[in-house]
Amino acid sequence: MIEQFDGVELMDSGHVACPGCGGALALKLALRALGEKTVLVIPASCCAVFAGGFPQTALKVPVLHAGFATTAATASGVRAALDFRGERDTTVVGFAGDGGTFDIGLQALSAAAERGEDIIFICYDNEAYMNTGVQRSSATPYGTRTTTTPGSGWKLTGKKNIMEIMAAHGIPYAATASIAYPEDLMAKIRKAVSIRSGTRFLHVYASCPTGWGFPPQDAVKAARLAVQCNLFPLYEVVDGHRYTINSRGTDRIEAYLRMQTRFRHLEPANLIDIQVQVDEAWQRLRRKAKA
């Protein structure tokens, strides 16, 4: 259960996200943790649509819509402008989907991290280009069927490990979070806000009923199962090398896969393959945390 929130809600109910949208819930929770002294930079994405186009908006903080590839670069410019004006207490946040993080926006994000820009970059990961018709991204996991990996051509490569990429930059803070664990998500965002130097990165699991193929009311269930089976473990990386694991799942992955139509084509042997991949990734993460 999420604890009672007594602060100011910075996202109105009048947004136009799909029912059960994990991205919308991720943004609502993020804004609770960020507070009113926040500027959001949002690229082309589902969020750019449901947050509202000028002059309408569902958000109660300043929003700058950026080009698909330029979230981190735009956020860097906003940070420089605020610093010039002496507004150091305003937090600048890039809020991008997996396409705008793993793929199209990666070069700008890497450059910002290398420069040590004082920004927070939040990736809400729904594992495909959902806003334009459920095309595969490099965040799409092995075994998924999308509109660009149809039929027998379902995605045969694994998901890009964006956390390892960001940790390799030696940034002061990187963390995974999930809409199914709101207190953990908000605590990690508050921790990122408290660090006032360098780029901070959060990878948020944001399930998508429309693209994944399950009823809207099961959005949180899907996100929770992903953590409970170690498909999406919750952990933090400080300064690129100090790992802390915040979750330890024990469930098998089959229940998670079977609840989604995007995996309906998989045979029992495929499920075994995916379980092996998940177990191996989990063991690698545990070794890093013990190092």
Descriptive report:
The chain has 291 residues and is of the alpha/beta class. The protein has one domain (22-290): Thiamin diphosphate (ThDP)-binding fold, Pyr/PP domains (Rossmann fold), CATH 3.40.50.970. It has helices at residues 22-34, 46-50, 71-84, 99-103, 106-115, 162-167, 182-194, 209-212, 219-228, 254-258, 268-290; strands spanning 38-42, 63-65, 91-97, 120-125, 173-178, 200-205, 235-238, 242-245. It has an 8-stranded mixed β-sheet with strand order 2-1-3-4-6-5-7-8, with helices on both faces. Helix 2 (46-50) links the parallel strand 1 (38-42) and strand 2.
Task: Give the SSE layout.
Blueprint (H helix, E strand, L loop, with lengths): L21 H13 L3 E5 L3 H5 L12 E3 L5 H14 L6 E7 L1 H5 L2 H10 L4 E6 L36 H6 L5 E6 L3 H13 L5 E6 L3 H4 L6 H10 L6 E4 L3 E4 L8 H5 L9 H23 L1
Helix pairs in contact: 1-7, 3-5
Short description:
By secondary structure, the protein is an alpha/beta fold. Helix content is about 35%, strand content about 15%. It is built from 11 helices and 8 strands.
Helix content: 25-40%
Count the beta strands: 8
| SSE string, helices as H and strands as E | HEHEHEHHEHEHEHHEEHH
Mean pLDDT: 96
- Put simply, the count of helices is 11
- The global form is globular
Q: Whole-Å distance between the termini?
A: 34 Å
CATH level-four homologous superfamily name: Thiamin diphosphate (ThDP)-binding fold, Pyr/PP domains
Share of β-strand residues: 5-15%
Number of separate structural domains: 1
Q: What is the CATH topology descriptor?
A: Rossmann fold
Ranges where pLDDT stays below 50 over 5 or more residues in a row are: none
Structural class: alpha/beta
Can you tell me the CATH class? Alpha Beta
Per CATH, the architecture is 3-Layer(aba) Sandwich
Biggest β-sheet: count, sense, barrel? Answer: 8 strands, mixed
* Strand line-up across the major sheet: 2-1-3-4-6-5-7-8
